[in-house]
Amino acid sequence: MARYAKFAYLMFAAPLALAAPAMAQQTPAASTSPAAPTTPATPADPAAPADATAMPADGATTPAPATTAREMTPDEIAAFNQAVTDFTAGQSAQQAGDNAGAVAKYDAAIPAIRTAVEADPSKIDNVNFLANALYADAAAYGAMGQMDKVVSLYDEALPYWRKVVEAKPEDTASRNILAGMLIQMGNQKLAAQDTDGADPYYQEALTLARKSAAAQPADAVSKNILLSALIGASQTTTEEGLRDEALNMGKAMMADGTIDATNRPSIEIMTGAKAS
């Protein structure tokens, strides 16, 4: 079977525009947990409503629900506040094209954000903050070509993104972010000829992407995510019609100019417009 999916580097080419959360607490005089970020850090790309029904890829896990939340210590609160500052600095560096500077700041911020999530996993804004910090870190590493780090960060981030999507069914950005990450993980498996490992990622992404495209049928971002999921899934499953669906959708998107630079080469190969 011909291989069309490729591990897409394009998504890492431009800095992400994520909003920084508010400071958790200016003065940790009492041993109280930081308030959840009031402005969740979500990428600005348009997307479709989040979906809570897609099944995780085989072997993937979601963060275990906390039986009891604990209060954070003053030192942990101070570290969380510093993480907000570091995250904001990482965003500025990334937007300026300084990816090395960005990963240094993100790597410094992530441990304290993890601690806040571990202290109280029910605080979804902190979960969202961690998910986005991991995602932004992966984007910066990807821009530097360190794809092993991208895969590792995505693997850690996926359970948190699933939790965000489940908790925020109207958050249009989160659904497409999660679907795009799943496709990237599937592409990585497929590039290593691991079709069994790739298929669950594509299937989960396909469920999300179909709902996105149904909700916003004219949105080019949602259409391209669905097309990517179809191209991937058509190579890892025997389900009838997926390849034809991908081909027909790709042809239509090439005709109307909505296909992106990641999907175009695969559709050109499938249509014979470009030699494989």
Low-confidence runs (pLDDT<50, min 5 residues)?
A: 5-56
Give, in order, the helices and strands: HHHHHHHHH
What would the average pLDDT be, to the nearest integer? 81
| CA distance, first residue to last residue | 12 Å
- Give the strand tally: 0
Helix content: 55-70%
Query: How can the largest sheet be summarized?
Result: none
Query: Radius of gyration, Cα only, in angstroms?
Result: 19 Å
Please give the domain count. 2
Strand content: under 5%
Shape: elongated
Number of helices: 9
By secondary-structure content and strand pairing, the structural class works out as: mainly alpha
Can you offer a commentary on this structure?
This protein has 276 residues and is mostly helical. It has two domains: 117 residues, no CATH class; 99 residues, no CATH class. The chain contains nine helices and no strands. The radius of gyration is 19 Å and the shape is elongated.
List the helices and strands and how they pair.
Elements: H1 74-95, H2 99-119, H3 124-143, H4 147-167, H5 172-191, H6 195-215, H7 220-233, H8 242-256, H9 264-271
Helix pairs in contact: 1-2, 2-3, 3-4, 4-5, 5-6, 5-7, 6-7, 7-8, 8-9
Task: Give a summary of the structure in a few sentences.
By secondary structure, the protein is mainly alpha-helical. It contains nine helices and no strands. Helix 1 packs antiparallel against helix 2 (99-119), helix 3 (124-143) packs antiparallel against helix 4 and helix 4 packs antiparallel against helix 5.
